[in-house]
Each structure stands twice: as C-alpha cells, then as structure tokens.
C-alpha cells in the first residue's frame, strides 16, 4: 500500500515537472518571434558590400551600385553593372525588405549598345520590387530559391529619398563627372588649373573615379576631397578584369573599354540624379567653356529658356595642341616650373575640327532626363537634344594634336582662358602651396 502510494506521488511529481517544462518552452516561443529592435529594421542582416565593384557570385559579372529608378514602366530598381556579354544567364532580383527577405522577381538585363566589341560591357539590370516591400538592399541570384548556398553580396539601394533642398533647390547646380584616372596619372598642374577653372565657372562638385594616380596628384586630390569640392570614388577595376587603355579591342586588347569609362559615367549620372541640377560629362583635360557668359549658370539659364524640353546639350570638342606655345611666354611662370604637368595658359592655338569626318562632343545634361549615356552622346534619354553653337560654348582641350600636320599659322588663336588668368593663377598657387607642391621660395 505504502509502496503504491509512493509510486503515485512519484508519478504526480513527474507529471508536474513535465508540465512546468512544457509550459516553460511554450512561454518562450512568442518571445523568439518578437521582431528585432526598431533601429535594426532598416539594416539588411546579410553580407553587405562596401566596395564600389562587387563580384556577382556564380557568374562572371560585376555589380557597381543600385538606384531607385521608376521612370521606366514596370521597374523600380536599376543596378549599374559590368557583364560578360557572352555569358548572360537568367537572373533573379532578391530584396532585403526592412530586414526580411522578399520573394524573388525576374531580372531584365540590358547591355548598353556601346561596348566597342570588348568582352565586358556596361550593363543595367532592371528589377521590380515585390508588393509591401520596403526595400533597402538588393542582390541577384542565378537560382530563385538558393540564397543560402549562393551566399550573395548585397548592394544598398540609393536615391530612395530626394536629396533636394527646400524650395525645390538641388544640393548642387553643377557636377563634373571625371570618368577615370589610371596609369599613375600625375598631370598635377593641368589638373589643378582645370579644377580651379571649373570652380570659377560655378561648378559645385567634381566626382572622380580613381584607379591610380601619382603621389603629387594624390596629395592634391586628398586636399580637394577634404574640403568637399572633389568626391573620390575608388575604382579598382584592375583587380577584377584586365582593363584596356584604349578604344579598339583589336589594337589595345583587354576585357573592358578604357578602364570601364562607360560604366563610371553612367554611375555618376545616377549618383547625381537627385542632388545636382546639371552634370558635365567630360575628361580631366577638357574644360566646357562658355564664350558669351562668365559662368555656367548664366549659360544654362539662357539655353534652358530657349530649349525648355532639352535635357542633353552637346558641346563640340576643340583641340589646343600642347606642342605649340604662345610666343611671348608671359604665362611661363617661374613658380610652376617644377610642378608636373601641362600649363594650359600657354596654349592658345586651336585646331579647326574636321567636320567631314566624325567629330566628338561632350555633354551637359539634366541627369533626370538621361537613362543611358556613352562618352560622346547619350544612348537613351527622355527629352530633346541640342547642339550648342560654337560661339556660345565649346570645349578647351589641351592635349596632343589631333591634326599633327598643321603648322601654327594654320591654327586659330583663342585666348578665352586668359579672361580668367588673374584669379586662376592666384587660386592655383594657393592650392599647390596648401599641399606642399609649391613652396614659398618658388613664388618669389
């Protein structure tokens, strides 16, 4: 009897303990399903790329940056990329929605028409965000339901919110996009003169994609970057591909045209989409120069008033051969003798373009009216295009002669840069002295 009573007690105790254990588990379950703290909801909990060039796993392709872009019907996101043109497979867009994975949506791959026959080319990948997704990051998959094994890198989505100031004003009026620096480029004097000339013309920001540059130029760039005038974007394309130094694949070889120039120009257009009224697309040795106005704002106010539906303004390129010097050498300044690079004030002789053959332009664009751009023209845009007359604006391009057979007397004299010489010289001296390239004894 006592034995059976003890057994019953033992069973009761065991039953109660079991209930407590089960109850304990049951009260913890709701706690596990509580969403993460509010401050973490907008952070994708996966591997987020902090690089400007991100390899796409399980492919030969590279991702650069993602932007909200709802101008093309049926799409929300444009991913600026570099794709191997002969290896394009079916891809799927996957989003991080305030910390939660979305369903995948099909990706549309648009290789730009200008690729100059190189194996890799600038590419847009277009995605649609699923309903009820507050997308913060995006990635691409080669299989729609294989996130874990692919372990993708996530790219932040930019331009989600407008960056306009109050009263519908943009953060910047004018941004210059410099597509590439490479090959330890160290043309310090021309670089400083060009940037200071743009500052005099009213440019607010210069975006530069830097693969490599010389030590003196690196110091100059850091100074401009520290003050906020230059935005440096690292561009280590040589770590991922064999970039070409030229235009022609048969002549220069390589995987990608001119260190990815087409990709960087497009990236800069989208980077500037919500923050700059106008974008100038040109090289560092080119100055888009107004000839009837003292600054770019006055020029564009006039052009936009005359051509209100225009979003792309084509500016003709004019070569000033660096081998011909102004005879008096009045701007052969002693303080600049040891500064590496070309002194653009000494070159006033301008070639007439050969208009019977293709002659390139560079551009001033409203970025919101551009979908895809090449170097000398836009590939897709939403407004009209206009070639600006030569007497209104042209490019001052000091470089190797394009028509090397022409003698000095066959060239035009163009002293437009001299209209700015006093302020330009003073400003260049200040910036070179600031970075230690120009010492006080050199200015005496």
UniProtKB/TrEMBL annotation:
Instruction: State the organism of origin.
Output: Anabas testudineus
Transmembrane spans: 12-31
| Keyword annotations | Glycosyltransferase, Membrane, Transferase, Transmembrane, Transmembrane helix
Q: One GO CC term of this entry? A: cytoplasm
Family statement: Belongs to the glycosyltransferase 92 family.
**Where does the record place it?**
Membrane
Reported EC number(s) for this entry are 2.4.1.-
- Which membrane topology describes this protein? Single-pass membrane protein
Q: Which GO terms describe its molecular function?
A: glycosyltransferase activity
Q: What is this protein called?
A: Glycosyltransferase family 92 protein
The family database entries (Pfam families) matched by this protein are listed as: Glyco_transf_92 (PF01697)
